[in-house]
């Protein structure tokens, strides 16, 4: 009898744990834009601080999958406060988002990298009397997620990362990896590196990091298209994460929220600091805090220091931008764009980021974002 009761209690506990885990995954990765997140009191407070102003109708936006999980949370909170308004963010890629913006089919686009000069020139056809500008909204670490049975702690440096994704290091017990992980039981298993199949700002930011820190081993320009030979491709951050999750020996790159929601182990980066640096929101914030605005006028594009060696600064970071017209926005959606982006750049909106595995934009820069949003026309 005692044994039966003990087993029943254990089954109950495991069932509760499974439900709890399912709820966490739902909150982090769902495409449902109608559910709320967090506690009722917290959501009521967040919703009460959202100013709907002239928001109305339906707002379409698309682009970066890096910010998908943040957008899911923002959209839920915003639509709960602004009844009758629908915001639909299609998670695809930075490249696709910019194309959609420059075709005039979306109110704003999300991109993991700032507009190029030729893209700005193209935007002037849609932004009558103005041009596309970059508003930094989401920060965070690009995690190197891996799946290696028996290895729960892994350190890599820039050169080793470059060689892995450049198909120069092919086994997990390679001497270069073993040197960075003394005492670890590394198997003689083939490394299966995964990269994005479509143009991606996440790919470009990884390329910027490797170009700044391991140029000898990564002789490629930092572009949205994957440049190196070998490896396997998957669509979107979610696709890369899914492949890493299911394949022993795999490694890939994606935003921390994808690793956190699926319990994927992440690499610590040996930057030359006192200790290897883990991919956390806090460590990414330390790196992003040193960013400088390099955009001109209302453009707030940032310059990041990918070669930082500061203690506790995780170097593989990205900032996603919301791309809008400074002038010449669609009059039908302008009110909703301004209202929604005012919320995402607010203290409440940025607080959501930390809770979802992202890093808030530094307060000084974020204040300039709000000022700029208020002037959009």
From TrEMBL:
The keyword Chloroplast does not apply. Phosphate binds at residues 64-66, 94, 112, 200-202. It comes from the Bacteria. Residues 1-27 form the signal peptide. Residues 55-347 form the PBP domain. PROSITE patterns: PROKAR_LIPOPROTEIN. One of its GO terms (cellular component) is ATP-binding cassette (ABC) transporter complex. The keyword Secreted does not apply. One of its GO terms (biological process) is phosphate ion transmembrane transport. GO terms for molecular function: phosphate ion binding. This is Phosphate-binding protein. It comes from Streptomyces agglomeratus.
């Amino acid at each position: 009898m005692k044994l039966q009761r003990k087993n029943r209690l254990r089954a109950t506990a495991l069932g509760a744990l499974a439900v709890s885990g399912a709820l966490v995954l739902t909150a982090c990765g769902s495409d449902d834009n109608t559910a709320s997140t967090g506690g009722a009191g917290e959501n009521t407070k967040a919703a009460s601080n959202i100013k709907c102003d002239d928001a109305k109708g339906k707002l379409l936006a698309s682009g970066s999958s890096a910010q998908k999980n943040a957008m899911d949370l923002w959209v839920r909170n915003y639509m709960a406060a602004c009844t009758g308004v629908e915001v639909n963010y299609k998670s695809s890629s930075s490249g696709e988002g910019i194309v959609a913006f420059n075709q005039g089919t979306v109110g704003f686009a999300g991109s993991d990298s700032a507009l190029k000069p030729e893209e700005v020139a193209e935007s002037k056809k849609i932004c009558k009397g103005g041009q596309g500008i970059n508003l930094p909204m989401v920060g965070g670490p690009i995690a190197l997620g891996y799946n290696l049975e028996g290895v729960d702690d892994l350190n890599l440096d820039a050169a080793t990362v470059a060689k892995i994704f450049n198909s120069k290091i092919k086994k997990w017990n390679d001497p270069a990896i073993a040197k960075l992980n003394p005492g670890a039981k590394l198997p003689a298993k083939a490394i299966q590196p995964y990269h994005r199949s479509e143009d991606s700002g996440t790919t470009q930011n990884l390329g910027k990091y490797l170009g700044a820190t391991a140029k000898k081993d990564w002789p490629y320009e930092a572009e949205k298209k994957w440049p190196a030979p070998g490896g396997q491709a998957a669509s979107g951050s979610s696709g890369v994460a899914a492949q890493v999750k299911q394949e022993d020996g795999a490694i890939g790159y994606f935003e921390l929220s994808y690793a956190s929601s699926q319990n994927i182990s992440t690499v610590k980066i040996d930057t030359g600091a006192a200790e290897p640096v883990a991919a956390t929101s806090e460590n990414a914030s330390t790196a992003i805090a040193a960013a400088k605005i390099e955009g001109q006028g209302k453009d707030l594009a940032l310059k990041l220091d990918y070669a930082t060696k500061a203690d506790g600064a995780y170097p593989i970071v990205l900032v996603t931008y919301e791309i809008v017209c400074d002038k010449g926005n669609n009059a039908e959606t302008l009110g909703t764009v301004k209202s929604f982006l005012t919320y995402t750049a607010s203290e409440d909106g940025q607080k959501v980021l930390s809770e979802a595995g992202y890093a808030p934009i530094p307060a000084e820069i974020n204040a300039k974002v709000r000022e700029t949003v208020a002037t959009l026309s």
